[in-house]
Amino acid sequence: MKKVWSIFLLLPVSLAFLAIVREAPAQDRTPLKVVLVFDVGGRGDGGFNDAAYNGLEKAVADLGVKAVYVEHKRNLELDRTLAEAAVSDAAMIIGVGMAFSERLTKLAAQYPGKRFACIDYHVRYDDRGLIEPLPANLAGLTFREEEGSYLVGALAALTSKTGRIGFVGGMDNPIIRRFQAGYLAGASAGRPDIRVLSKYAGITGHAFNDPQQGYRIAAGMYRQGADVIYHASGPTGAGVFRAAREMKRLAIGVDMDQSAQAPGLVLTSMTKHVDVAVYESVRSCVEGNFSGGLKSFGLKEKGVGFVYNDGNRKLIPADVLDRVLALQARIVAGEVTVPGVIPHRPVHSRKELRDLLSTLHAEIQGALDRLDGDLRRSAGKLAGADPKGGDARDVLKELYGANPYIIDCETVSDRGIMLAVEPPVHRASEGADISQQAHMVQLFKTHRPVLSASFRSVEGPDAVVIHHPVFSGERRFAGSVSALIAPEYLLADIIGPVASNLPVDIFLMQTDGLVIYDVDTAQIGRNVFTDPLYRPFPNLIALARRVAARREGTGVYRFYQQGGKTPVMNVAYWRTVSLHGVPWRLVITCERGSLER
End-to-end CA distance of the chain, in Å? Predict the structure, then answer.
């Protein structure tokens, strides 16, 4: 279970590094300071974050470095956290998780005197399909998950009594397909006649946090005769272990020893030694031989492996262990190359494109509705309360803490004066008069919830405001409670992983042509109808006008890719996400050549 250990980082800079956990022993020279920023979930996750912490703690003990640990809850805080770390006296900054990839790439270029490392760095490719080089001061730490998966695949095949085993992936993406590719290859090497059932929980980031779907998939595989299932699905794997417990079958964990999830029924776990990668990166910095670029950790580097200890010794016969260790030795010696890719066409048909649009539409609408529901409940709690008092601040703190996409939230008087604002760093806005803003005029007129148009916020990102009216005990309009949110951060978590994995472009547009979100963040805040950037593309503008005029539909348009001379024909589908009568058009486009005819 997750431990409550968080120190959430906010401005001002003077508060930035209160999360210092431990310092190195006194030395004659100033110890090297290393800032480690956890991924969302923080320490106590039983996975990446805990492993990264263990690696840096070992560096504290062995190398005398000074460790600074920072947790964050929202993307806005993450950007500030990294920026503050970059201007601090820290010599090295480590980000845990692929979400740090682009951010650290930019910071490394801005601060060449610092050293940066990113766990599970997400590789980017140029127009020629070549890997874009990393800054010389950034180490992109990757793992050959396929090698560890190969070994547990062999273990599964060699211990199976039914001749059927299973693989459950989280989000269908290149990283998880590496797990699958290695597992399939290892199973075949251990037992050529083995049958492997494979299925993914989904195609969006939610697939990593859906235990119920994990349970449904695993239970179905067990019913089909599989007696061992390997999962690479994050928290979704809890459902796999639940199925294993109920049906008394074996499961294989991932990243860390997960034997506690189903005692006596976890055959092994494929371990991903993030701690080793962190420790080695810090050591290279301490010893003065740090180098940037992609760093790959596999069996040879002790970056991956599998669990064999007293907890599972009875499940693995000695002869099976010997065969698997022999396979491991051959991989380390370079005699066996484990495949990291399996044939995959992520988009096959127009139907699949429409299904993807439907999935994204449901997730985005659901996220907006949940946020709106929290605002509605907050307005109910404030009925008859002092909008500037302690009760109001408690309500705002709860609202802010529950929604990582909120930049700030506030109570507003019946005359449009901002009364109480959370978090504290934004309280300078208290007393501001916003009565003349268009959405406030509408709120005063209707006394109904309103959603503003997108605008550039003082805090930085393009934002929208949701207001819910607050009434007195006598049902008299008394003002509102509102939340300023950055659609970019809300939508990036839902859309970003999909767009990085599939040959599609996805954006959201207001009906006036303003782009609320685009995978290419440079497009956010531009107006397709009026911005000079789009004038050379009349087909795109024409499609955008059709999109603005209809709640849903399909169309095609020609588009010249950067540096290209031959136009590309793109197919587009769109649907409408709406809140309080304000429509946002969700558009997905795909090059027609990527679709089946």
Answer: 49
